[in-house]
Sequence to fold (179 residues):
Amino acid sequence: MSAAPPAARTAHPAQAGAPGAAPALWRRMACWLYEGLLMFAVVFIAGYLFGTLSQTRNALDNRHALQAFVCLVAGIYFTWFWARGQTLAQKTWHLRVVDKTGRAVTEARALLRYLLCWLWFLPPLAAMAPFSLSAGAAAVIVSGWVALWALLSRFHPQRQFWHDALAGTRLVHVDRPPK
Fold:
């Protein structure tokens, strides 16, 4: 009786690292954190542009308009890059956004994915809105929700995040480009 090698018995297709397979959760979260660092620059430039164009002198003036502008800029950034397959962070971590059939996503589907990505943050923010919580308590609640949302991908049949399932997209591992 021939037994499969231990690695073949224990590796889940989502963690195998094969091209086209769902990437491991640690890889997706590392990419997510790197994307946050890159978004700092995007938000900084958007805020500077908004402040310059609106001649805002105080950070609290036009706060809601600034938030809407930054959301719009982030939406354009992600929609544009995802419709072309990858953001810079996803290129670094060898991830690609595709539709359910493995083809590139359309701009409309990329925009839908961006809107559904707000499920990472909006539920805890909405739950906290009626309360006057300290910044530390808010950070703990949001971090807890992010961790829970990430772990919920373990219950998806292809180990995808649920916003991808709702948007009809998948995050897949891709080979490194040839040197």
Notes: The chain has one domain: 18-173. The chain has eight helices and two strands. The mean pLDDT is 85.
